[in-house]
């Protein structure tokens, strides 16, 4: 049987993630994403996905120390970063730099290294391209605080909480294209650095890790709450898609959008831009329901990802790389799962030539 894109075909068994698109449910190792985000730090959630249990105090301490030990860029990595031409995208830079890392004996050690170093690579390159002074990681800060600090030279607790929620929620999402690419590479008994290089190359494509910049364009166009209804009406009449709404898997509300919105609303000072996003969501869902009553169109995770990136004043050009800095956890966990119970991927191709 030939199924284009392997749509609907089960290719692996996993204990990492379950998605029920009809009910709007996403769980990591059996735990609903909402409770994982509410009760855990980035480090707890990453450890849980990699090892299957939430870390004890001692396990967490060791994990954090390992992350700290791997956060700094080795001199040769800085040289590579400095030599990549300025026109290359952040995903190109990430792919090239990650591919230069040394393979360690234990796959889990490489996983910790990758989780720790990817934010430093992104922040180093980002500041270099903007002619800003480079900020080294601070061992006193946790993972997400360090990422914010290295990018923007400030650590605002409420911004960190929101970014952390986004990063936890996007760590893992089943057998998406990049995760599949990582598993295929590992299935040949290749190493984790090669698998993650494959995954980053796959994530780069607009059909997968495409940045939520469409949402930013939409909200920039709307600009003020007075314009929402008129602009959305016009777009729907012209049969345009409203960015940040609808999802291929979720046929109800994307649970990540709900959890992310909750986090955003909890923050002390809502930036004007977020207020506009919240109001636009309300009006758009109502209008989508009028124009497309059969489709059940709701907000997806990209909508609030855009709101967060914009309110943190991060450049759209690094959105997909930031997404990769969280999905690295899922890629590593899937690679470890594949290695522990491996069969090489080798599907058939039906010959249709002369
Ligand atoms: N705005 C307006 N209409 C929409 C939207 C939308 N955002 N999404 C779907 N529809 C309509 C389509 O026009 C179509 O209507 P029709 O049958 O009258 O022609 C119907 O709903 C079904 O559309 P499909 O593309 O077949 O639905 P699918 O579930 O395959 O699409 C997708 C999912 C591609 C995400 C779509 O909802 C979309 O284009 N959304 C906007 C882009 C976006 O936000 N992408 C980010 C997704 S989240 C992520 O990738 C992490």
From TrEMBL:
Keyword Transferase attributed: yes
UniProt-listed InterPro entries: Citrate_synth-like_lrg_a-sub (IPR016142), Citrate_synth-like_sm_a-sub (IPR016143), Citrate_synthase (IPR002020), Citrate_synthase_AS (IPR019810), Citrate_synthase_bac-typ (IPR024176), Citrate_synthase_sf (IPR036969)
Stored PROSITE patterns: CITRATE_SYNTHASE
Pathway: Carbohydrate metabolism; tricarboxylic acid cycle
GO biological process per UniProt: carbohydrate metabolic process; tricarboxylic acid cycle
Pfam families: Citrate_synt
Active site per UniProt: 247, 302
Alphabetical keyword list: Transferase
Molecular function terms, GO-annotated: citrate synthase activity
Gene Ontology CC entries for this record: cytosol
Keyword match Nucleotidyltransferase: no
Catalysed reactions listed for this entry: oxaloacetate + acetyl-CoA + H2O = citrate + CoA + H(+)
Family named by the database record: Belongs to the citrate synthase family.
Protein name (Swiss-Prot/TrEMBL): Citrate synthase
Species this chain originates from: Virgibacillus profundi
Upper taxonomic lineage: Bacteria, Bacillati, Bacillota, Bacilli, Bacillales
């Amino acid at each position: 049987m030939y199924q284009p894109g392997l749509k609907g075909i089960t290719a692996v068994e996993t204990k990492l993630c379950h998605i029920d698109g009809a009910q709007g449910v996403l769980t990591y190792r059996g735990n609903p994403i909402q409770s994982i985000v509410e009760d855990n730090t980035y480090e707890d959630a990453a450890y849980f996905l990699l090892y299957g249990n939430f870390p004890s105090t001692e396990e967490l301490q060791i994990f954090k120390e390992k992350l700290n030990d791997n956060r700094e860029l080795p001199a040769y990595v800085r040289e590579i970063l400095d030599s990549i031409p300025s026109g290359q995208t952040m995903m190109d830079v990430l792919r090239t730099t990650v591919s230069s890392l040394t393979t360690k004996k234990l796959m889990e050690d490489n996983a910790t290294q990758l989780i720790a170093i990817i934010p430093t690579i992104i922040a180093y390159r980002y500041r270099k391209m903007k002619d800003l002074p480079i900020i080294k990681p601070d061992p006193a800060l946790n993972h997400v605080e360090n990422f914010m600090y290295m990018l923007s030279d400030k650590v605002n607790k409420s911004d960190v909480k929101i970014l952390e929620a986004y990063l936890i929620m996007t760590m893992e999402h089943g057998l998406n294209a990049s995760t599949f690419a990582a598993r295929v590479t590992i299935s040949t008994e290749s190493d984790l650095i090669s698998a993650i290089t494959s995954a980053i190359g796959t994530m780069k494509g607009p059909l997968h890790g495409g940045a939520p910049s469409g949402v930013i364009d939409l909200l920039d166009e709307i600009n003020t709450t007075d314009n929402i209804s008129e602009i959305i009406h016009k777009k729907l009449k012209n049969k345009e898609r409203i960015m940040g709404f609808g999802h291929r898997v979720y046929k109800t509300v994307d649970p990540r959008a709900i959890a992310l919105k909750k986090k955003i609303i909890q923050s002390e000072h809502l930036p004007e831009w977020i207020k506009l996003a919240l109001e636009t969501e309300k009006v758009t869902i109502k209008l989508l329901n009028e124009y497309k009553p059969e489709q059940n169109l709701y907000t997806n995770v990209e909508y609030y990802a855009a709101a967060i990136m914009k309110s943190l004043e991060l450049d759209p050009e690094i959105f997909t790389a930031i997404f990769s800095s969280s999905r690295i956890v899922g890629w590593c966990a899937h690679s470890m799962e594949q290695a522990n119970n491996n069969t090489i991927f080798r599907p058939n191709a039906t010959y249709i030539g002369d």
